[in-house]
Amino acid sequence: MAVLDTFSLAGRTALVTGASRGIGRGLAQALGEAGAQVALTATTLEAAQAAADELRALGLAAHGYELDVTDREQVDDVVAQVGREGGGVDVLVNNAGISIGGAALEIEDDVWHRTLATNLDGVWYCSRAVARQMVTDGRGGAIVNVGSMSAQIVNRPRWQPAYLASKAAVHQLTKGLAAEWAPHGIRVNAIAPGYILTEASPVDQPEYYDDCVAPAAMKRWGTPAELGPVVVMLASEASSFMTGAVVTVDGGYTLF
């Protein structure tokens, strides 16, 4: 197989959580451009379908689904539905996440619980539901988790203790599932983005520059489009001998 052909996702179905905007929307488009039929989820059906409509307008195969990743029963139902309609889930991208700022001595317990429920429990529920399908079908597949460089560093300029803990856990869960599911032909990897400009992360604003942009070796923020090719690699045969890896994409922020 020619090297560029190993990146193709033609004939595969990819499920991307939290895909209506920001990083998830960018990753869904990249997977679609690589040839996958993409199932996009969001917490409202309207948002998921609107994002899917945008991809279809680009000539890509996409469908939207309502999904709260903290609801295990709903996760199981949506994964089963996507599997039936797409011939089985070949690729799962666990992107859904939240980040709520606040000092540890000031935030309510609800912030901690909601953050862990979305960022960690959601990865757990979705990964198990998809892996069960992959094992039953005997087809294997690829799971890509969206972690963060925040698993290694302390976010600035605001305190986010729950977010930091959740992303560190995602990285370690990635490794544990990779080891356990490798015999089933399921590869589990993660990306660790740095500061990425999205609707929810306005790192282009002056108050963010000194803490979020200047310390990076490349002296700039990243974009969702720059994460897409990395996720396509991890989802495709281009990374056939990779599992349990956490690929840092942060413009060199964590070099110092």
UniProtKB/TrEMBL annotation:
InterPro entries given for it?
Answer: NAD(P)-bd_dom_sf, SDR_fam
Q: Does the keyword Oxidoreductase apply?
A: yes
Give the main EC class: oxidoreductase
SUPFAM superfamilies, sorted: NAD(P)-binding Rossmann-fold domains
Task: Return the EC number.
Answer: 1.1.1.69
Any single GO molecular-function term of the entry would be: gluconate 5-dehydrogenase activity
Keywords carried by this UniProt record: Oxidoreductase
Q: Which PANTHER family match?
A: SHORT-CHAIN DEHYDROGENASES/REDUCTASES FAMILY MEMBER
Similarity section: Belongs to the short-chain dehydrogenases/reductases (SDR) family.
Q: What is this protein called?
A: Gluconate 5-dehydrogenase
Its ancestry begins with: Bacteria, Bacillati, Actinomycetota, Actinomycetes, Micrococcales
